[in-house]
Structure formats: C-alpha cells, structure tokens
Amino acid sequence: MPAITAVRGRLVYNSRGSPTIEVDITTDGTHTGRAAAPSGASVGIHETASFPEGGVAASLQVLSDNAGRITGADPGDVGAMNKVIREIDPEPGYPKMGGSLAFALSIAAAESAAKSAGKPLYRFLGEQEPLASALPSAPPARRYRFPFPLGNILGGGAHAGPGTPDIQEILICATGSDTVQDAIRTNLEVHSELRRILQESDPGFSGGKGDEGGWAPRLDNEKALQAAARACENLGFTLGREVSLGVDFASSTQWDASRSRYVYDRAGFENDAGEQIEFASDLISRFKLIYAEDAVHEEAFEDMAQIRARFPDVLVTGDDLTVTNAAILERAARGGSCNAAILKVNQAGGLYDALEFAAAGARNGIGLVTSHRSGESTESHISHIGIATGSKMLKVGVVGGERVAKLNELLRIAESRDGGDGDGTEHDLIQGMAEL
Ligand code: PGA
Ligand code: ZN
Predict the structure, then answer these.
(1) Does the pTM exceed 0.85?
(2) 256: Cβ–Cβ under 8 A, 6 or more apart, which residues?
(3) What is the pLDDT of residues 353-376, one digit of tens each?
(4) Is 344 an active-site residue?
(5) Is 258 exposed, middle or buried (0-12, 13-18, 19+ CB in 10 A)?
(6) How much distance in Å is there from the Cα of 5 to the middle of ligand 1?
(7) Neighbours of 269 (CB within 10 A)
(8) Going from the N-terminus, what domains does the chain have, and what CATH number goes with each?
(9) Angle at 282 between CA 338 and CA 258, to 5 degrees
(10) C-alpha 42 to ligand 2 mean position (Å)
(11) Is the Cβ atom of 374 under 6 angstroms away from ligand 1?
(12) Does residue 119 have an active-site annotation?
C-alpha cells in the first residue's frame, strides 16, 4: 500500500491575484502531487465556502495541526483519503478547514498516488469508487473519450466591468470536430476572429478581456451574441454543425429575490419568472445554442424543467442550480430540471464529493460538464477529471495561461499512442470525442 510520507501547505495566488491555498503531498518519499484551490466570482448560495473565518492562514493552521493524521494515510484510495479529511472536519461543508483545503489535499493526494502507480491521473480517477461502478462501462473494459472543450469567447456579468453584456459568458464549442486537436484549434480561431469583428465595429475596443479570457466589449446581450455568430460564419462554419454557441446566463447574478425579478441593468430591462423563460428560450432558438447554463436562478428548479422540456437536444445545464452536490443533483434529475450539470470540485469541497456527484450524474443520465473557475490555478487536473468522469464537455476558457494549461494537457494526453499507460491494453484507449 502506498503511504503519504510528507504534507506541506502554503499561500499562493490565483489568476485573479487573490490568495488561496496550495498543498504538496509526497507518497513513499518520492512522488509529489501538488494542487492549489481555484475560486469563483459567481458563487452559488449552496456552494461549500472556500475558507473558514481567518482565511488561508486558518486553513494552513488546520493542515499543520493535522499533519500527523495525514502522513501514513493511503492516497491510492480516494475514499480512504476522504475518511482522513472527514476525521479532521466531520461537519458538512468543511466549516473548520474550508472547502479549499479539502480540494487541495484530496487532489494533491490523488496526483501523487497516480504518479506512484505509474498511471495517468484520468485513469487513476476512472478506477475510483463510487465513480467506476456507476459509469456505463466499468473497468477493465472502460473506454475513455475526450470531452469537447467549451470556451468562453465573450464575457460580461460578474466576470467583466460596466458596459459589457449582463449575461456572463458566450461560449464556443467545436461540435463537428473529430479530434481534440481540431476542437481546440477551432475554438481559438473563433475567439481570434471575434476580436477582429469587435475591433472593426468599434475602433475604440481595447482588446480587454474578462476573468476567463473572453473578450469584454461594450455591447448588450443581443449584439454580443450576433458578433459571436458572425465570427463563426466568417470562418465558413454553420452554427449547429461545425461549431455551436452556448451561453452561461449565470441568472442568479440578475435575480432580485426581494422583488422576484431578473434585473438586466446593463441592457435596461427586467423579467419576471415567466418572461425569463421566454427570454432564454428565444436566445436558445435564434442562436441555435447547444448549451444553456443557469438560464434561471439557482432555486428555480421548476422553471429550469420548463426550459429542459422545450429543448430536448440542448444541454440544459445546472451550475449554481446543482453546485456539484449529489443530493441536489438527484432532486434536479427527479424534477427533470436539467439534462446536464457542471462539475466543479471546489463547489463540493473534496474530490470524493465530486466523484459522488459524477456517479449520481451517471446513474440519472445527466451529462457532465467539468469546469474551471474564473479564479484559477495554472494546474490541469480538470483535464483528467473531465476524461475520467466521462464528461461531455470541458469548460476551460480559451486563452490566458491558466486556461491554455488545461487545453495543452488534453494535447499531451492525446499524444501518447494509446492515450493510456503505454502498455497497449484495450482499456487504455481513448476513443475519440464524447457523445454530445
Ligand atoms: P465562477 O464562474 O467560477 O466565477 O463561478 C464560472 C461559471 O459560472 O461557470
Ligand atoms: Zn456558471
């Protein structure tokens, strides 16, 4: 059995320049895994809080107080690591250590265990319970596929300043690509053509970007979507065929619960619950969206179900709605609220919580979209998590070092002859792109 021989934590900064926690775990004195926790700007109310009172310093104190429990633990079993973490902080929501420490500890442990087992991280994770037995094809016959990269090409809302669209993200996905290399290249081409269009229509556009690398122009929702559609068409693509657009409405940002209205203050209108369903449905139809995230606010399960029923072929996706929480996802599935859900490990806290969520998704036929956060590290664990969990898409942005790191990791994984550990056995094969 592999055993943790050293653990160390430190304060580092994320892509927004905010402090976060990074953890190193060494297995058998040799194999070191490292993970730094990301953070969101549009955070769901049911998400796990990142830090306890006292911030990063308080989490680091918990880590050093408990280093003796962590050393000697088996990092090769995500469930066993979860038990160790739960001994330190048994309450739901990790109030003592903070979700960020649960994240960094569990992912650093998994990376060091995968290294010590000589396996790529995606394969190590794909063999872990409760995920492995919930997936349609359990090991050893498991076939891995590449999720489609989903890139934020134009940002507004909580990710960009005044004058930008109210909706948070316009996303591109190369739905017609047969290879991950082509899918990544296509997303980058559309992002680049969009800049040209934005500059052509507004010579004063400075090339400013939101937190995830999407352009942040002075445009309303409608004009922003039109520009994104034109970028695709200029490159010779037909929307819904070679490429498709998506939108993260991040509707909880607009929702004013005291007045029961969605306030689009940049565009200058308001929607009641019914008008919001029509507003989102109209954009989904006119721009042939393949992907619609949080089209209503985070507690509007029934309104989401109405959108889901209208668009059976669209990935009607929960993010703030489902917050990587297996119990909430079960509720959303029972009510038909979504057919897809975002997986962000730090929304839940630790890796084991996220594997439980992925298993619940697989059991309920909910497609997964593994996702970055707007405040990111330069690490690329989510590229592996996306493959391991059988995610349909990997939402990782388009440009910026912390976004490109995830895309480049997909390219490295694709490079190895069989995409696996090199022994050529059937279960190592990565067979093309996910089914959308
Ligand atoms: P966040 O945004 O990381 O700021 O929450 C990403 C998203 O809403 O998908
Ligand atoms: Zn979102």
Answers:
(1) yes
(2) 262, 263
(3) 999 999 999 999 999 999 999 999
(4) yes
(5) exposed
(6) 35
(7) 14
(8) 4-117 (3.30.390.10), 132-433 (3.20.20.120)
(9) 70
(10) 7
(11) yes
(12) no
